[in-house]
Amino acid sequence: MQRAHDENHEAHIRRRELLIVSAGAGVATQSVAALPSTAPEPPSSATATPNATYAVRLTVNDQPRQLDLDPRTTLLDAVREHLQLTGTKKGCDHGQCGACTVIVDGRRLNACLTLAVMHQGASVTTIEGLGKPGQLHPMQAAFVKHDGYQCGYCTPGQICSSVAMLDEIRRGVPSHVTGDLDTHPLLSADEIRERMSGNLCRCGAYANILEAVMEMGGNLA
């Protein structure tokens, strides 16, 4: 009997201790819940500052244009979305396919990798500025002649890149495959392949594009 009494007394003590601890935890929880939040309040819509825009002046296809742009706007989106010049294509949007190539101050650029605000006052040429139906640029005509168009999605970037690339050779700009850096680079299939390697064609029209560019380069040499 004495042993049973002792066991009951011990269990009662443990239960009491448990209730005390639980009650303390509840008080602590309530205390934490009662503390004021230290997190900053988000700004209300009435006080939030609207996104700033910047006035960007460009000459696009020989036409002066002024745009109010979010500073994060790429040159590609400025051309396509704000000026509705959709001939320039958005391919990978990561600078890997060259579909968005435009000519900026005489140099070819992947328009998806550069911000419009970085080109204040620049001259931008898109495929619409090179030629149009019935009045094709010679490079466009060469692409048609040699069936370099295929599906056509990469073609605007290929043509812009080809035009600027031939100008690079004219100006004597060397490439990775130019053998002698002290001499003017010559137009060759290797030079064209290397310089056009940033423009991908998923139709595999490379041979036709090479023929078109070679013909144009020969005509302009």
Key attributes of the depicted protein:
221 residues, alpha+beta, 5-stranded mixed sheet, 7 helices, 41% helix
What is the alpha-carbon Rg in Å? Answer: 34 Å
Which overall shape is indicated by the principal axes computed on the Cα atoms? Answer: globular
Into which percent range does the helicity of residues fall? Answer: 40-55%
Largest sheet: 5 strands, mixed
Number of helices: 7
How many E strands? 5
- Placed side by side, the strands forming the largest sheet appear as 2-1-5-3-4
Q: What order do the SSEs take from the amino end to the carboxyl end, as H and E?
A: HEEHEEEHHHHH
The separation of the N and C termini measures 117 Å
Give the integer mean of the pLDDT values. Answer: 85
Strand residues, percent: 5-15%
Taking pLDDT < 50 over at least 5 consecutive residues as the criterion, the unreliable ranges are 18-36
Coarse structural class = alpha+beta
